[in-house]
């Protein structure tokens, strides 16, 4: 039995959803509503003690970390293969995925958290805030949430995040000038990983990401959006608009 | 032809050195002296534009990021295998390696950088500092170096780092209570990755890491230190004492 705990089809959740759809395997979907902090609820912490999405549960074994989950899916459902056969391309796939996990993704998500989550989290009363923070097991993530629920990031931190996003844009465009997909001549897990960040880029940095400045990123995005697995992943439930409405916030900007 | 650019046998350098020694493959060793900032020299940036060690160069292809290098080595030199056959154990290997890369290792290294590198880097003249910083290509790393060469980490940041190290210690002891090695019943790349941090723990946190508090970590460390590959890796050149002496600093504390 294969189960996925995930949020709306963006960021690390869409990464695993695309992989599952590329593999064409059946799974049970469990929606975790991040805007309601369900990832820190005791029921979810029993599944993933780190309190983050996504989590894959396969025959009782919980697999965490989206990049690890996708390698796991390629190990257990090898058809179609989503890792290059050539070991150098495979290493390139992992290097680029790691860069997204460590720098590019977090920088883009700091901007997203600031604009989407800070207005919600900062409305919590001091008691609610303490109570929610005390549920978060990992020190590092607890601090990140304390920042978001408190004063959020400083202008300098946001400027840093923007600069890191632009660095990532430059690297992605350069990669795609060298070969059709991010790791080489074939579509792979690092293209899926890039889709964590890439669809938001033309909106996040319109001056830097467009047909003139980054033609290869735009072509690659088109090719990604044409894939049936990407379309199927994007068609998965997204409760953000209804949750924002229920909380009395305006709808999010279109992606 | 297989070449490794690496520093003394600790941290991410020892991780790849152990893997190469476990595989028993011949390689050319290029020592990069971090205390002389050789990782930011133009000759090295031509090998690895990110300016970090280690870098593996195999038949002209440069592979970076120690965790990726070790998976690459297991891909191209499959004997003896250093990844578990069972996909769940293999995922566990990658989850634990990622935790070390993302949290445990950086937290321990912040403490090491503060005590070892800050005294050296802070002696640079403002011009030398600017000139060296301008060579570092990645924004995130440039900032880390600016911190080290400037005021270093605050007492609060160091306390945070210590707390993260203790969190890692708890997780490692728990893993080793569940199974003999970090990923399961067999030695794997996540044991090698753990050796990035683990040998320093009894010295870094003597109250938390000892025979009484963490018997499994101590037994596992003994087993690691008995491995011929670990001994061979530790016997690789270490220019830290002579470089410190040449720079007029006292020798480092014994590890």
Structural topology:
2 copies of one chain form a homodimer.
Chain A (H helix, E strand, L loop, with lengths): L1 E5 L4 H13 L4 E4 L10 H6 L7 E4 L2 E4 L1 H11 L10 H35 L4 H9 L4 H11 L5 H24 L10 H6 L6 H4 L10 H12 L1 H7 L5 H7 L9
Parallel strand pairs in A: 1-2
Antiparallel strand pairs in A: 1-3, 3-4
Helix pairs in contact in A: 1-3, 1-11, 4-7, 7-10
Report on this structure.
Two copies of one chain form a homodimer. Chain A is of the alpha+beta class. Chain A is 57% helix and 7% strand. Chain A has twelve helices and four strands. Chain A has helices spanning 11-23, 42-47, 66-76, 87-121, 126-134, 139-149, 155-178, 189-194, 201-204, 215-226, 228-234, 240-246, and strands at 2-6, 28-31, 55-58, 61-64. In chain A, strands 2-1-3-4 form a four-stranded mixed β-sheet, with helices on one face. In chain A, a hairpin with a 2-residue loop joins β3 (55-58) and β4 (61-64). In chain A, α1 packs parallel to α3 (66-76), α1 packs across α11 (228-234) and α4 (87-121) packs antiparallel against α7 (155-178). The longest helix of chain A has 35 residues, at 87-121. Chain A is globular, with a radius of gyration of 18 Å. Chain A starts with a strand and ends in a 9-residue tail after the last helix. The model of chain A has no long low-confidence stretch (mean pLDDT 91). Chain A binds chain B through residues 58, 61, 63-65, 67-69, 71-72, 75-76, 87-88, 90-91, 94-95, 98, 102-103, 138-140, 143, 160, 163-164, 167, and chain B through 58, 61, 63-65, 67-69, 71-72, 75-76, 87-88, 90-91, 94-95, 98, 102-103, 138-140, 143, 160, 163-164, 167.
